[in-house]
Amino acid sequence: MNTKKILLIILITIVIAISVVFIFYLGRKVFNAPELAGQQLPDTDAAEEAEALLRPVSDESEEDFYKGLFIKDINPDNTKKVQFERGLKIIDLKTNKVLQAVKINLEDVNVAWVKPDEVFIIEKPSILIPSSIWSYNLKNKNLDYIFQNEPGLMANWSKDGNLVLKFNGELSLINNKTGQVIGLPFITLPNKCAFSNNNEEKIYCAVPKTMPSNTALPDDYLKNKFYSEDQIISLTVNPTKSQIILSQTGDQKLDAVNLMVINDDLYFTNRYDNKVYKIDL
Fold first, then answer.
1. In angstroms, what CA-CA distances link 173 with 68, 118, 160, 198, 217?
2. Nearest in space to 198 (alpha carbons), one of 265, 257, 256
3. Which residue, 161, 151, 115, 107, is CA-closest to 136?
């Protein structure tokens, strides 16, 4: 066998060995990668255009105004507040007098005043223990279930209370007027979404690009066992259509919570640095 043939055989052997090593390495990367949890991957061109939209909020008054919108115990016209201490208390903000009180045998709950005459009572969510959400009507004094005994239960309402984003292992949009339920094509939590001001059938959500395997939602996220890396999407319903408005953020990692649309901007808090950011819509 001449020298050329020997060199050719050696070269072919080296190429085969490198290919085998590469395939083995690639296989390990794929099978050890975090699960995508059904998320939509970003469109590269759209992401590059959207990157410049992300801006930190440096004005303290602007930041305080945004944070004030998350005070959920004040009624829509800012005249009353609700407290929960062994039951509901409705208090006049001017006189600080208790206008109405009702005993309710619940503990460790949150309250939200969404509609003028309704206060929502929300048990803390866990995938391990079913929880419920109630509505208390201030006029007829009825206490009714909105959602009952569901694991991992979380919800976020539109400003008029007619639409609600509900999470119970899956994310859905419910129209309280029509009873229509729309399953959404991604997984995120309601506190990572906001309804548009002008069109409440348009929603903005921070959607994790990936999630660790065997993630228990919402517990692991709420207990800070992991931080997500989000892309911001807009979603319209009837028909359902989504669009990525922010994906690539350079060196800035983004885990957005407490989204709120104010005028023509989308505000949120980044869990990585606890600072407030906004996006031009």
1. 26, 20, 15, 18, 18
2. 265
3. 115
Residues in the chain: 281
Three-state DSSP class for residue 257: strand
Q: What is the pLDDT averaged over residues 90-97?
A: 93
Beta strands in 48-160 (DSSP E): 54-56, 80-84, 87-92, 98-103, 109-115, 118-123, 131-137, 143-150, 154-157
Q: pLDDT tens for residues 212-251?
A: 989 999 999 999 999 999 999 999 877 778 889 998 777 8
Of 120, 119, 157, the closest CA to residue 138 belongs to: 119
Q: Give the max Cα distance, the chain.
A: 104
Distance of alpha carbon 21 from alpha carbon 28, whole angstroms: 11
Residue 158: count other Cβ atoms within 10 Å of its Cβ.
Answer: 20
DSSP structure class, residue 41: P
Share of residues in the chain with pLDDT > 70 (%): 81
Query: pLDDT tens for residues 259-281?
Result: 999 988 999 999 999 999 999 88
